[in-house]
Amino acid sequence: MSELVYKGKGVIVHIKGPVVEAEGMRGAKIREVVYVGEERLIGEIVRIEGDKAVIQVYEPTGGVKAGEPVERTGEPLSAELGPGLLGQVLDGLGRPLEIIAEKAGGPFITRGIKAPTLPRDRKWQWTPEVKPGDDVIAGDVLGTVPEGSIVHKVMLPPTVEKARVVEVLPEGDYTIEDPVVVVEHIGGKEEIKMYHKWPVRTPRPFREKLAPVELLVTGQRVIDTFFPIVKGGTSAVPGGFGTGKTVTLHQISKWADADVVVYVGCGERGNEMTDLLHTFPKLVDPKSGRPLLERSVLIANTSNMPVPAREASIFMGITYAEYYRDMGLHVVLTADSTSRWAEALRELSSRLEEIPSERGYPAYLPDYIASFYERAGRIKVQGRREELGSVAVIGAVSPSGGDLNEPVTQHTMRFVGAFWALDKDLAFKRHFPSINWLRSFSKYVGGLRDWWIDNTGHDMMAYRDKAMALLQRASSLEEVARVVGEAALSDENRLVLLSAELIKEGFLVQNAFHEVDTYCSPKKQALLLKTLLEFYDRARPMIDAGVPISRIAEMKSLGLLRRLKFVPEEEFENAVREAVSQLEAEISSLLAEVR
Amino acid sequence: MSVYGLTYKGIDQVKGPLVIMRGVPGAAYEEVVRIYSEDGREWFGQVLEAGRDKVVIQVLGDTEGLDSNAMVKFTGSTLKIPVSDEMLGRVFNGAGEPIDGGPKIRADDFRDINGAPINPAKRDYPDEFIETGISAIDGMLSLIRGQKLPIFSESGLPHNEVAAQVARQAVVPGKAERFSIVFAAVGLKYDDVLFFRRQFEEFGALSRSVLFLNLANDPVIERITTPRVALTAAEYLAFDLGMDVLVIITDMTNYCEALRELSSAREEVPSRKGYPGYMYSDLASIYERAGRIIGRPGSITFMPILTMPGGDLTHPIPDLTGYITEGQIFLDLDLHNRGIYPPINVLPSLSRLMKDGIGPGKTREDHKEVSDQLYAAYSQGTKARELVQIVGEAGLSPREKLYLEFARRFEREFVAQGFRERRSIEETLDIAWDILSILPEAELTRISEKTLNKFHPKRRVAAKAEGE
Fold first, then answer.
1. What's the CA dihedral at B325, B328, B333, B334 to 10 degrees?
2. Is B283 inside a domain boundary?
């Protein structure tokens, strides 16, 4: 965020961690941004008592004294929206980390640094779309500039309801501070720049919310096939530590077929952000052929950075996502982790001495969670365009003690469309992604049958049902085997276990760090699952014919089937044919043996 | 308005470790104060709440003997310690003062013990393998230079031995420089401290170590500062002097207990099991100081030790720690009781940074696949072992019996090794292949055909025979 204008001064009377009280603040507004103390630390007003304001400060307050000044700005915490967001790495307040490092003169983050999100000196190649005399309404495209892998639409900001264009700068290179368009409306003339500010806690307007129906392809088999998420949908990923939340989110940020990805690292590890910063510039977006970083906005507010800024970072991120959505783009926002965000809320609530509800969380926790997930959706954009945009929101949840009954998980579950429950036992076995197929859900499954048929030619949802039935049957057989031993089961039941194992190893387990396996296209997913499912049907006659299960389990072609997923896309169909013919050959020779 | 350098007489209230004063406008938040009693005793304190009308000071050390006539001097500065290369070879208390009878160190600089967060954009991603010589760690939970990897243990388990063995044996292959060691004891018994000291002495590391000791009978409140003081020293050695520093802090459970005690004295709203709601962020401000920085040669590799109360992995202390650290090494009572040293249970253990620190050019090309296969097979083996409890060994299928045998050999030959035994990564992986080869090849699903051809002992024999 950039420096704001002076509105008046108060005086600090009390400091307790990130909570500061100031007097002489009459007229201040809730959520107004203030600068605290001699070092002008960024803060936000959270409570007003007469002349006194309670401020939450976004930077460490060590060394701040009573008597120091508080400057008001008159504006709420806002995001800068305009070209130059993509490819940025920002902190929770929207300050570019590179500029922070420059201003701090070293690798450690110091206090009181002001750094605008968008570069002021960079020039953008402006192409106007309107001419003087045109009538425009909020959301209408005034012109475009190329940005990274997208065409950035400069729109009439939502704050200007309708206006008439009076001046337009001709095609050329301009900075974001140049008034590219001047409009006239009821309030007089107004200069429109390529960027504007928007309060992060206010959802951006749109014309209409639509039902989400299109699969968001993530290339992760267990997600796309079993627990899919759609463009504009919501999903939560709960799991204890070590179950693979972060890897799952990183995978989605890398491979999801979105135009723009916003990744919010909220209260998590510093090295995880570094990992993203190292891999994103190297990875190539399959759609545009350009580095993934060019379609991404990364927000890093790691666990050791100030807690109040962690609370703000999620809203900052969703505001960026909505902004690109308004251009008619498909956006994915991933947040790791919403639990740390809720904990930041708890910490602030406790410092404000509010009465706690469950486990110390404030009573308004569910409203807060809802206010975040409800900003997802597939919408008709503002303005006179017939364009659709979407924001899908995927939030990691870090339940304390891995207990899914804790408040953040429970409240999140009510507001999301898909729920990917990560499982410690699977993670211990290095079965990744450790999404438990019995405890996860997706409400979007029903609406996606046609999508699969149209896009892959396979009735994937029918395969899914069949695979789920097999997995469920195997799960109850495993319960029995746990008591009596696998040897005591009938060969027929053991074939069910073997076939389910094949689905698990050959389909559900996906290696995020394997060159080929890291991404699996919907077409490959469909053919792979179909092939693996047929194993049971092909092997079943052998059991009836009296071939012992141990011989079936030893078949070499089983190994081929298990490793089919590692075969690159272009050789895949051949590999499937080969594996199946070898399987058939082995089956007929085993059958011949028993006869 | 500032009270810098001013001395006030008289305290209004003493409540546990908290001193409350009124009418001291202008005290700074987190400022250090010194308190002197009339009989000449001295205390250190820090401002917890700075108000125009009321100042709350947290006193380090026991408040016994404090009286309402005490003098309180405001220093105008937050808690800082002197740092220089003279720290090496020295012993300090939890406030950073020398306790080995030697002189005060000549300061090169004074550093705030809370440090400042490393800018995520300036972190260098840790991807260099550290060979600890311990198979379970090197093979399956590789430690990476700049990683924070805690040991989750229980009372009575040999976590001190494991940490000492790592400190003794750790090298980055290809680098001549040994690790400098920053060791912090938080609420430890004297014999434990003595053990580490003797170990460092024995392998000649004392001159490249800095020790910070807060013993069990030292002030509880200093347990809050001990890890921070130690990490401040480590940051200086690593990022100013360019050393590779291994930080061992034990026992973080005592730290968390102290945090809880303090929080309750401050009458804060407790979260789970009475621990404060900000414990996650507080622990993160400690653990996240590990790492590497772009353009600077040194590193902080961090191995905190914590004992899980009741061996419970879901207890808030291990739970919050696991969410912050890059994995964990889990010591297991059951393995210990069966005489296996080090008693590392690899299944609940994890090294998050392993994937980028191993493989061709770093360890060996088969490392990742072998490790994955060991996990999968050992997990099958433990499942078979559970089954034996119910149906007896006779009730197992031949496949299950094989896995049972695998688990036994894995524990006895791969995990178990001597306290003074150092295995190279090649030796570790060769032992792994030896044990894996008792399984049929069709079971080795996590290993590619190419790797099997090159490393599977049976195929190597076959290839050799063919060659002749």
1. 150
2. yes
